[in-house]
């Protein structure tokens, strides 16, 4: 492991009489430029804008233990009876049953931690369990670790990291393994966060013995683990970590909560964040950061680079339970559990934040919180805006078929790379609530589809015997295929054509992608 030197302290400024001060100004200026110049830490001075938060109360009593919040709404939590429960978007209870194939019952539940976009790790009396798709599942590594998990985080490659009294563990493809340095376990870890390193590599950061470390993968099974210095003041100590996820133009950033304030490290380097009151609790998810001070609750929106101050929240008895990528935090206020968000933002199903899209066929739905009735909901992608169609509402880049059903979700006309789907709810009073979902588009094939190369061979082999001189309408030229693209895609998708039997799914997908990407010659 290597350590980095602590940043130099700022020079103290004393008082003096006016004449003496004037005589010393040139000398002081030279000293300050030499001693502090490039080494002074840039300051962020937020001016939070007050907002009246949207609150949804849980319709059950939850324990004061970590939980998991799902970005589509609700989450998985432990209740005061020691059982695990699933909450819906409106705070009511959803279905969560032990899987019939479980080898054991969980027993008393201690805490719940994030595993992935829609799954949680349940730490129970009888081992570790997975909560996913309405089931509580007993994994093969159920009894590999005892009670005491302090934190989890999901790395950029999808692997889940767990901090436990016996060490630091990685869960990848159903296999649990320990990360060791020179054969020794990494014990005593109190906080975890996934964020880029100074070099831009994906890193897993952890706090151990009050010191900051990062693990960077050099292969699937080998990691470079090193101590990383932070620009701390004299007597300043790191208390907790948080990581903001990647967005458009950024790969994410690390935040530190110290006994004196906040430090953040975007790609430009370390910065100090000065707030009116010293922060006491820190929680991040996606592109949002929640900060609790002595009597204030603040929210930082990294995409908008804006701070908000929640009004009307009694924070005297306050505890964070979990937060999700939409900017919603589940908190305990006295004896109640409340979901707090800046606005009633649309929830999204079918596409989650950070998702890698490699194929066509996605259909994205927007779901509004209970009791919220916007005038319209629109989707924004690739510089274009599309109004939601039908019930749901539903968004498909290809629009809708003649019968009103969504076409296959096709990105064929978009460049590969990081994109963001915006979902905007517009209300009668002129206000808006927006949800931004960054995702990675990495198609299996990036080739531009054309009629001559990709579609005409399908026409020759399966269509021309009926659609040149036969009973069907003429489709023997590129112009006729382009003119009738909507009818053709609907017919092959619904397997009404060809008349002698449906096309293979790969050929159907080719036709849909060709039509959705502009029906090029």
What is the structure about, briefly put?
The protein has 521 residues and is mainly β.
What's the topology here?
Elements: H1 18-35, E1 43-44, E2 49-51, E3 54-57, E4 68-69, E5 75-78, E6 84-87, E7 93-94, E8 97-98, E9 109-114, E10 119-124, E11 127-132, E12 135-137, E13 151-154, E14 160-164, E15 167-172, E16 175-181, E17 184-185, E18 189-196, E19 202-208, E20 211-217, E21 223-227, E22 238-244, E23 253-258, E24 262-265, E25 271-273, E26 279-285, E27 288-293, E28 297-301, E29 306-310, E30 318-323, E31 328-333, E32 336-341, E33 347-349, E34 356-357, E35 364-367, E36 376-381, E37 384-387, E38 394-395, E39 417-426, E40 432-441, H2 451-467, H3 478-483, H4 485-493, H5 505-516
Parallel strand pairs: 1-25, 2-29, 8-12, 34-40
Antiparallel strand pairs: 3-32, 4-5, 5-6, 6-7, 9-10, 10-11, 11-12, 13-14, 14-15, 15-16, 16-17, 18-19, 19-20, 20-21, 22-23, 23-24, 24-25, 26-27, 27-28, 28-29, 30-31, 31-32, 33-35, 35-38, 36-37, 36-39, 39-40
Describe the structure.
The protein is built from five helices and 40 strands. Helix 2 (451-467) packs across helix 5 (505-516). The chain folds into three domains: 44-341, Methylamine Dehydrogenase, Chain H; 347-442, Sandwich (Immunoglobulin-like), CATH 2.60.40; 451-517, no CATH class. Strand 10 (119-124) and strand 11 form a beta hairpin. The strands form nine sheets. The chain has a five-stranded mixed beta sheet with strand order 1-25-24-23-22, with no helix packed on it. With 521 residues, the chain is mainly β. Mean pLDDT is 83; it is low at 1-39.
């Amino acid at each position: 492991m290597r350590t980095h030197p602590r940043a130099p302290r700022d020079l103290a400024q004393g008082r003096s009489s006016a004449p003496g001060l004037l005589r010393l100004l040139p000398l002081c200026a030279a000293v300050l430029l030499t001693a502090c110049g490039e080494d002074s830490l840039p300051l962020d001075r937020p001016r939070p804008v007050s907002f009246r938060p949207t609150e949804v109360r849980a319709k059950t009593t939850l324990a004061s233990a970590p939980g998991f919040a799902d970005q589509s709404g609700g989450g998985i939590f432990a209740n005061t009876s020691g059982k695990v429960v699933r909450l819906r978007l409106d705070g009511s209870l959803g279905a969560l049953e032990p899987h019939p194939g479980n080898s054991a019952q969980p027993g008393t539940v201690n805490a719940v931690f994030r595993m992935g976009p829609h799954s949680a790790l349940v730490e129970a009396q009888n081992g570790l369990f997975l909560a996913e798709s309405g089931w509580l599942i007993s994994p093969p590594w159920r009894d590999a670790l005892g009670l005491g998990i302090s934190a989890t985080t999901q790395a950029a490659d999808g692997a889940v990291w767990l901090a436990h009294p016996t060490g630091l563990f990685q869960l990848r493809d159903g296999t649990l393994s320990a990360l060791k340095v020179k054969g020794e376990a990494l014990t005593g870890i109190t906080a975890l966060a996934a964020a880029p390193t100074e070099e831009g590599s994906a890193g897993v950061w952890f706090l151990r013995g009050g010191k900051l470390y990062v693990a960077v993968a050099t292969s699937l099974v080998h990691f470079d683990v090193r101590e990383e210095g932070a620009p701390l003041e004299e007597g300043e100590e790191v208390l907790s970590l948080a990581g903001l996820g990647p967005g458009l133009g950024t790969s994410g950033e690390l935040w530190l909560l110290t006994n004196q304030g906040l430090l953040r490290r975007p790609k430009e380097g370390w910065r100090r964040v000065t707030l009116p009151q010293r922060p006491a609790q820190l929680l991040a998810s996606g592109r949002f950061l929640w900060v609790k001070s002595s009597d204030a609750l603040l929210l930082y929106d990294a995409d908008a680079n804006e701070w908000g101050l929640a009004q009307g929240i009694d924070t005297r008895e306050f505890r964070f339970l979990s937060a999700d990528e939409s900017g919603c935090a589940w908190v305990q206020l006295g004896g109640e559990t409340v979901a707090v968000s800046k606005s009633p933002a649309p929830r999204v199903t079918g596409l989650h934040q950070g998702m890698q899209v490699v194929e066509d066929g996605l259909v994205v739905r927007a779901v509004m919180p209970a009791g919220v009735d916007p005038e319209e909901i629109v989707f924004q992608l690739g510089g274009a805006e599309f109004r939601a169609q039908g019930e749901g509402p539903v968004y498909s880049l290809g629009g809708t078929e003649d019968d009103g059903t969504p076409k296959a979700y096709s990105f064929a006309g978009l460049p590969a790379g990081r994109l963001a789907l915006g979902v905007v709810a517009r209300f009668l009073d002129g206000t808006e609530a927006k949800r931004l979902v960054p995702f990675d588009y990495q198609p299996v094939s990036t080739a531009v589809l054309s009629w001559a190369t990709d579609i005409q061979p399908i026409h020759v082999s399966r269509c021309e015997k009926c659609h040149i001189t036969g009973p069907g309408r003429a489709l023997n030229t590129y112009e006729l295929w382009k003119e009738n693209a909507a009818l053709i895609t609907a017919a092959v998708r619904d397997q009404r054509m060809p008349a002698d039997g449906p096309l293979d799914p790969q050929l159907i997908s080719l036709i849909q992608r060709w039509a959705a990407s502009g029906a090029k010659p």
